[in-house]
Amino acid sequence: MRPFPSSRALGLVALLGFFSYDARAQLNAAVPVRLGETVVFTLSATHGQTPASERARQASVALAQVAQADELPEVRVQRSADIAIVYAGDATIVELIEADATLAGEASLDAHAAKSADLIRQALAAEHKRSRIAETVLSLSLVVFFALIAFYLIRKVASVAERLRIWLEEHGDRSFALRVKSIELVRPAVLKNAAIIVLGLLKWVTQFGIFYAWLVVVLSLFETTRGYTERLTGLVLAPLSQLMGRAFTALPMLVMAGFVGLAVFALVRFTQLFLASVARRETSLAWLHADLAPTASVLVRISIVLGALVFAAPIVTGSTEGSLGRTGAVVLVMVGLAATPLFASGLLGAVVLFGRRLAVGEYVQIQGRLGRIESINLLELRLQTSDGTEQRIPHLLLLTHSVERMGPAPRLSVEVVVPTDVPPARVLEVLTAAGERTGRDASAELVSVEPVGARYRVTATCSSLSGRSPLLQGVVEALAATGVSVGQGMARPRPG
């Protein structure tokens, strides 16, 4: 008979069995595969020489890299012999074996792989959603932050521009001047106002640039609006870049045009100052009176500018089709169209003058205005009226209104009201005789019968416009001498 082992031997065998079981338990322990802090699935088996912990670590790293993609990848399972490989897009997440399915309590490797793929799909979707929410919250925070910065910069630009404007208002008249020796080309007030205008434009351009930069940054923060960033940039920056390119190409011509413009400006300023001295009678010219100097100054300066645009522009640009030449032609056309009435009046005045249609000293009536022609020039008639004022009638008015010529003596009319009980024949005889005594070629007529009496009109050719009052006086005295009372009366100059 074999002897029974001692109690010490039995204890040693039991201890060895416990440690062997603990090693197997640790070897087969489930190791979690994580995405962030979330456990997606577990691995327990060793695959080849790779323990479960290393496999779990590699799967976690692969999931973390896939989760950083902008689009949610497609999760699929590919079976190969006794291995099931889980893919997320083109990335390999994990290789599962039969031991993984057995230790996970699954009936087959296919079922375990499908379940693991579904868990990976859910984890990636949750992580993608969480990432989008976090990105949106961060983008909104940046929108608010950049808006505060943009608002501060816009207010700062407005504050600096206002301080500069106040300084220009206070010191611009003393600090700005453009002189060539003793000739002041531009007054300080003009330069000050120009500087204020430029400052205002720069303020608005800078503020718009800050707003534009904020808008571009905000649009680039969100996925749905990033396409508008390129469109907006092309809409604003592309024309500016093209303009700068053309300006750089035309730089030599612009420099030459600047020198020519400066020379024209100096000539215009010198002409203005010279003719201003003529107007102040500081300079005497035999061919230009002092009162005509301001008008001549305007005409000469306009002629200098137009001449520079029409004749100097093709020389500077080297082409008659340049923008400056076209500008001069356009300005000439504009001046021609604007001066069409003036030219038409001058042409009609030439016809009146050289055709002897009217003569100085004649009495005419135009549109109810009765007067004596004092002078005729190319643009107008000047009439001396009965009240001693001068009326100037443009020749263009003669195209739409008739002219009543009375010759060297005007025919004037007066009206009186006589009671109806006096025979009209007697009144007409008295009125005609009174008109002949005051003027000549007198005539009388019954105009109307009114409740206050009968109205008569006496017309006679008088020596001047002042004959109206003597004519009315003679009529009233003639009626009073025959015992006829005069009612309400009215006298006014009228053509015979």
Characteristic key phrases:
alpha+beta; five-stranded antiparallel sheet; four-stranded antiparallel sheet
Beta-strand residue percentage: 15-25%
N to C succession of SSEs: HEEHEEEHHEEHHHHHHEEEEEEHEEHE
Mean pLDDT: 79
Number of helices: 12
Using the alpha-carbon principal axes, give the shape.
elongated
Compact overview of the structure:
This protein is of the alpha+beta class. It contains twelve helices and 16 strands. It has a five-stranded antiparallel sheet with strand order 11-10-9-8-12. The chain has a four-stranded antiparallel sheet with strand order 14-15-13-16, covered by helices on one side. Strands 3-4-5 form a three-stranded antiparallel sheet.
How would you describe what is shown here?
With 496 residues, the chain is of the alpha+beta class. The protein is built from twelve helices and 16 strands. The strands form five sheets. The chain has a five-stranded antiparallel beta sheet. The protein has a four-stranded antiparallel beta sheet with strand order 14-15-13-16, covered by helices on one side. A three-stranded antiparallel beta sheet has the order 3-4-5. Helix 11 (424-438) crosses helix 12. The longest helix is centred in the first third of the chain and has 67 residues, at 109-175. It is elongated. The termini are far apart.
